[in-house]
Amino acid sequence: MAIHEKFKEFREDVLQIRQREAARRLGIDPAALSNYELGKRDFPYDLLLKAKEAFNMTDEQYLAMLLGRPYGKGRKDAERLSAETNEAKARYYSRFADAYGDLIRDSPELRELIVLLAAQEPAVRREMLNLVKGMVEMYRKMNRLP
């Protein structure tokens, strides 16, 4: 399996995050990440290092991605894979909280939005978040922001 396939597998199956979220964490355009994941362009080495840090990959996960190999010495049992997936997600979310905790602490409006969203049913919450994301994207385009 090639690097681009292993990266996509890690993002989707282990972290369970969307391409747009991964791209933002890496500081690149989602279209560029799509090209890397599809194998249309080679991953730059510095971006792979940034991904290791941003997603808090273990050395084993990082080497497996670079070498296009399964983790460990071959097939893993479902229990070990599940445990490693849970650990990787926990590391990612911990780093995410560290990176954006100040924003939450310093933004009463954001905390208010989170409380409002938390009170909604999942389908309504998803709809509301998509509306907010759309408004933010529109604002960014109107004001030519990155």
From TrEMBL:
Report the Pfam families cross-referenced here.
Answer: HTH_3
Q: What lineage does UniProt assign to this protein's organism?
A: Bacteria, Bacillati, Bacillota, Bacilli, Bacillales
InterPro entries on file = Cro/C1-type_HTH, Lambda_DNA-bd_dom_sf
Organism name: Bhargavaea ullalensis
- Domain of life assignment: Bacteria
Annotated protein name in UniProt: Transcriptional regulator with XRE-family HTH domain
Start and end of every HTH cro/C1-type domain? 19-63
